[in-house]
DNA sequence: ACTGAAAGATAGTAGGC
DNA sequence: GCCTACTATCTTTCAGT
């Protein structure tokens, strides 16, 4: 199944809404040379069918005092199904963990951790992450700069 | 400066909009026990002052046929200012590159690459990424599963 | 700062092509 | 699948506290 049953107009709508979901139906209708009702119906369907998962606000993390982003590469001791699920469940409960990704290769999981600063990260590591059972190692890398940061998928 | 000049109500609004930006002012006003006009004015200010950078639609990547997410760890030959900027600029032009992060530690950059499948990634690597000057090595890791995936910062 | 109410714009619905 | 037209709801503004 390639691109489900999306036509050109659907793709254009998704492209626009990925960039800016505060476009009105009227604005989109103008850009795509369709009526407002058509655009409305398309978007309703794209939401209903799950192409659009949610509409969210993206904040400026520096302004809300989340200056440090860490990528923590985690290696576990065992890889039983139960161990993996347990780790995923527990680590997902920490609000500092924005992403938990199970990976191929040298590490089991990559975590994206947002904290105020290095001290706060250190605290998180010692008092939260490192207390989980079954962890072998955690290697921490930190974001120096973000030349590109997109939520939009190429379509 | 801790949390700029945001009060409790601002924080609550940001929390809500990070989770779901399609809440109406009325819904937010009800939740926070404020008037619609107050909520409206708060949100206007939060946008104007840059706390809210943008409102976007988050798509289901599997539905739009972006099944493979790769993290590509890139090491450059030189680290002159010109070299770094050149790399950042060029790599940011590729639509497959959703994120380009300069990192501390063993690698210079981590790239988040979204492609249809392994073949498409391989193609991207050979024909696009690996053609950039000054690259020493690219190590590719792939996402097996996403137990947690959030755009919302903890606040 | 916050509020209620008015005015204007938008989302959402219905019926027909 | 697309449209026009209508209604409900929401955003936005503003005078008043």
UniProtKB/TrEMBL annotation, chains A, B:
InterPro entries, sorted: ArsR-like_HTH, AsnC-type_HTH_dom, Dimeric_a/b-barrel, Tscrpt_reg_AsnC-like, Tscrpt_reg_AsnC/Lrp_C, WH-like_DNA-bd_sf, WH_DNA-bd_sf
GO cellular component: cytosol
Gene Ontology terms describing biological process: regulation of DNA-templated transcription; response to amino acid
Highest taxon above the source species: Bacteria
One Pfam family linked to the record: HTH_24
Residue intervals of the HTH asnC-type domain: 6-67
Molecular function as annotated in GO: sequence-specific DNA binding
Keywords attached to this entry: DNA-binding, Transcription, Transcription regulation
PROSITE patterns according to UniProt: HTH_ASNC_2 (PS50956)
Protein name: AsnC family transcriptional regulator
């Amino acid at each position: 199944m390639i691109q489900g049953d999306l036509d050109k107009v659907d793709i254009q709508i998704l492209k626009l809404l990925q960039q800016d979901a505060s476009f009105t139906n009227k604005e989109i209708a103008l850009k795509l040379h369709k009526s407002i009702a058509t655009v409305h119906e398309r978007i309703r369907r794209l939401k209903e069918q799950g192409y659009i998962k949610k509409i969210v606000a993206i904040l400026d993390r520096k302004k809300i005092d989340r200056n440090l982003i860490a990528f923590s590469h985690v290696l576990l001791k065992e890889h039983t199904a139960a161990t993996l699920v347990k780790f995923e469940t527990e680590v997902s409960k920490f609000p500092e963990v924005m992403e938990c990704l199970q990976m191929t290769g040298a590490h089991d999981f990559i975590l994206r951790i947002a904290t105020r600063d290095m001290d706060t990260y250190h605290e998180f590591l010692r008092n939260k992450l490192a207390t989980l059972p079954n962890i072998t190692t955690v290697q921490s890398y930190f974001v120096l700069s973000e030349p590109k940061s997109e939520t939009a998928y190429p379509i």
